[in-house]
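Tokens for chain A. Residues wanted.
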């Protein structure tokens, strides 16, 4: 096949064809020149009619290029753990626990409680919530620790004294929710009968007894962290 498709062979065949015709005429159609004409004609026809032979080198190069493309695509793929949580949530193809894992390092949680040994704080930290902070009271609504918080838990007893608030934590929680409506504000108390008509009970996002199960506090953190990040879509 390679010989037939060779241009030098084609030239030789054309010369043989022309020479064979002349020889045939001169010898009054002798058998030898007729054979030369037939062979030369077959070579010329083969050159133009037969398909081009496949070149192994080109095929190998093509295969290598396809492999390189596949490797490039795989190498350039973005790992799921590097995608922002908001983007993953938009796809609606990951479960609740995965979203929680992704938001644990981003959700800022603040406890305002004069009880420095409140166990829920430690439980949340042990559960891998990275940004949990606690203060015994605040002297302003504009301090960084308040501004940075996404979720604020307020004990209604024993706090708000630095701001001289009459109803202590209830007044403080109400002020926080009015100042930062986008934040989730949860109030809790060991006293079930603390000023039940105060506006904070209705305006704040949730209320708990202080001796509620730690799981109830943690569940609120999980639900609100998912809600807050979904709201950023």
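Reply:
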């Amino acid at each position: 096949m390679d010989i037939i498709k060779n241009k030098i062979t084609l030239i030789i065949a054309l010369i043989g064809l022309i020479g064979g015709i002349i020889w045939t005429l001169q010898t009054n159609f002798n058998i030898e020149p007729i054979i030369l004409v037939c062979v030369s004609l077959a070579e010329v026809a083969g050159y133009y009619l037969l398909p081009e032979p496949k070149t192994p080198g080109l095929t190998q190069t093509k295969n290598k290029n396809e492999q390189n493309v596949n490797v490039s695509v795989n190498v350039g793929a973005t790992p799921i753990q590097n995608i922002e949580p908001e983007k993953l949530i938009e796809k609606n193809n990951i479960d609740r626990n995965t979203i929680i894992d992704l938001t644990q390092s981003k959700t800022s949680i603040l406890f305002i409680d004069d009880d420095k040994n409140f166990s829920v704080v430690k439980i949340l930290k042990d559960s891998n919530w990275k940004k949990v902070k606690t203060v015994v009271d605040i002297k302003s609504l504009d301090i960084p620790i308040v501004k940075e918080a996404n979720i604020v838990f307020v004990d209604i007893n024993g706090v708000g004294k630095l701001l001289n608030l009459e109803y202590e934590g209830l007044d403080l929680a109400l002020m926080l929710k009015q100042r930062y409506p986008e934040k989730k504000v949860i109030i809790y108390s060991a006293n079930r009968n603390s000023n039940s008509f105060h506006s904070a009970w209705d305006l704040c996002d949730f209320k708990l007894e202080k001796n509620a199960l730690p799981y109830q506090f943690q569940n609120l953190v999980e639900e609100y962290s998912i809600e807050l990040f979904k709201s950023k879509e």
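The chain has two domains: 7-76, 85-230. DSSP finds ten helices and five strands in the chain.
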